[in-house]
Amino acid sequence: MTRQSDAFDELRRLMELEKLEDNLFRGVSRDIGTERVFGGQVLAQALLAASRTVEGRLAHSLHAYFLRAGDHDAPIVYDVDRSRDGRSFSSRRVVAIQHGRPIFTLAASFQVEEQGLEHQFDIPPVPPPDDVEPLALLPREEFDHMPKSMQRWLDRFGPFEFRAVRGSDPDDCSPQPPFKELWFKLHGQLEEDPRLHRALLAYVSDFHLVGTATLPHGISWVHGNLIIASLDHAMWFHRDFRLDDWLLYVCDSPSSSGGRGLARGMIYDQKGRLVASTAQEGVIRLRRTDNEKESES
Q: What is the pTM of this model?
């Protein structure tokens, strides 16, 4: 088994929620070597929990807030409120709970399939995925000599392959325009369940997005001087897609201010169809150096 296939199997297990009651579900977490649960995991599990209370309709939008850091050593309980079921749309609210406190909230809307007017932004002129080099994976010997916590952090990318067109090199600390494009797909085949594909697209959409807001400032998480954390996440699903086929993530960041950065994303398939859109704001702060702390004392 490869690291990628092991990680794919683990990711699938994360999406297997335990039903406790009609509107109550429990999920487990993965230790990725940090003090908190990966936000994309909570986002995906909450969307799946909401989806399991809806029949004959698929999620078309979600809006979520990250309230507290999740504990990866404890299960997460998802409490779903069936807010409304109309003729065409259903609304759900989900609260993710750990240790008796909410850590995350999500509002999602579901719609019956129907036809309507169509238009979209064109896919940007980027090279196809076969012409783009994969993001570098560490050699096995180098990987094995890293601390276990760092191995888990790096291996969280294992279920997906990313091929960056621009803006995704964490070692490049030169100021760049706030734009990023990268191809990605899932390592492994998923069953024909659009609810699962949408949940896992929500999961992977949390990668690379808010980091786009750091590009103009020449800073990177790999150097340890950056504090970055998601505050919210919004997503809209426009058209059907498969996550085990190549998708293009096109991100931009229109503004950073007040210790926060805003990023937006559009996700296309290889045919140029816009399948989803995202938006996210996150905390972006630089850690104070020892010299700065001493000068203030």
A: 0.90
